[in-house]
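Task: sequence design from structure.
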């Protein structure tokens, strides 16, 4: 709990370092909040299927999504700062975080475009579907690489 409080105290601080313990306790705290909320969303979606017409389910579904979105929005900056400090502590330039950010944004835009303009389930597979699959796979591999970078030991002499 002390580590979480320390991370919140450094909410806007990009300078300094964050050891592995501070970073991973932060990640576990974010998961401890996110996983139950996403599970509630999944249960609501499973029980009611398409929530249109079910006013209680639709309201609960949208309220849960709104709360989760608000939580992630509020936690974005401290998550970014602890990630920057963790990479600096591992001796890696924090500017590398721009790679997954740009790749993730581009992937999201491609997937949203596909969802908006290719809604028919009977549409045959085409290059955009293959492109979306490859892009999503590359994004996942880059994210895994960053998880490995976050696990590197501290380098006291660098940066």
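Answer:
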């Amino acid at each position: 709990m002390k580590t979480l409080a320390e991370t919140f105290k450094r909410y806007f601080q990009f300078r300094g370092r964050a050891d592995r313990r501070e970073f991973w306790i932060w990640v576990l705290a974010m998961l401890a909040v996110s996983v139950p909320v996403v599970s509630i969303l999944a249960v609501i979606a499973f029980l009611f299927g398409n929530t249109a017409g079910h006013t209680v389910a639709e309201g609960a579904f949208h309220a849960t999504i709104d709360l989760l979105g608000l939580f992630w929005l509020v936690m974005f900056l401290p998550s970014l700062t602890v990630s920057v400090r963790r990479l600096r502590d591992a001796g890696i330039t924090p500017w590398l975080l721009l790679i997954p950010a740009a790749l993730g944004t581009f992937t999201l835009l491609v997937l949203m475009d596909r969802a908006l303009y290719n809604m028919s389930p009977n549409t045959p597979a085409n290059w955009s579907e293959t492109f979306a699959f490859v892009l999503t796979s590359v994004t996942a591999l880059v994210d895994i690489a960053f998880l490995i970078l976050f696990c590197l030991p501290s380098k006291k002499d660098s940066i």
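The chain has a mean pLDDT of 81.
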